[in-house]
């Protein structure tokens, strides 16, 4: 339990130590004191050799201790709109795989239905097409017979 930022052992809590501190006013020793025994506020890394004092570049206020990796990443992220960061975090936490799968499945289901419909139409016309083929076969046979008949008659008339 802390009272006015002081623990029962008489030490100041970290949040009390950094409250109101300006990064530019800290000397290297004070920065080492702040990072000693601390852990990265984002990832929890407690490797003291990678910890740095993080500060707001706009007003210079010390925000806390981060590892170098998180500090660098935060430097890239903090210039982005908060709404975009929130949406990006939601996207990463909830990938849109289901929506993409649904689109692909819809395409294949629709494609399959289109194929089945076309096959049904052809199957429905099969009788008609076969009847037409039968008529064509009969007509070809009739023409062949007439051709043969006229060929035989023409040969008989030759002198």
Description:
The structure is a single chain. The chain folds into two domains: 80 residues, His-Me finger endonuclease fold (3-Layer(aba) Sandwich), CATH 3.40.1800; 64 residues. The chain is 60% helix and 7% strand. A two-stranded antiparallel sheet has the order 1-2. The termini are far apart.
Properties at a glance:
159 residues; mainly alpha; His-Me finger endonuclease fold; 2 domains; two-stranded antiparallel sheet; 5 helices; 60% helix; 7% strand; rod-shaped; disordered N terminus
How much helical structure, as a percent, in the residues? 55-70%
**Mean pLDDT over the residues:** 80
- Number of structural domains: 2
Gross morphology is rod-shaped
The strand order across the widest sheet is 1-2
Order of helices and strands: HHEEHHH
CATH class (first level) name of the largest domain = Alpha Beta
Spans where pLDDT lies below 50 across 5 or more residues: 1-8
CATH architecture of the largest domain: 3-Layer(aba) Sandwich
CATH topology of the largest domain: His-Me finger endonuclease fold
Kindly, what is the distance between the CA atoms of the first and last residues, rounded to a whole number of angstroms? 134 Å
- Total beta strands: 2
Q: Could you tell me the strand content as a percent range?
A: 5-15%
- Structure classification: mainly alpha
Radius of gyration: 43 Å
Largest sheet: 2 strands, antiparallel
The total of helices stands at 5
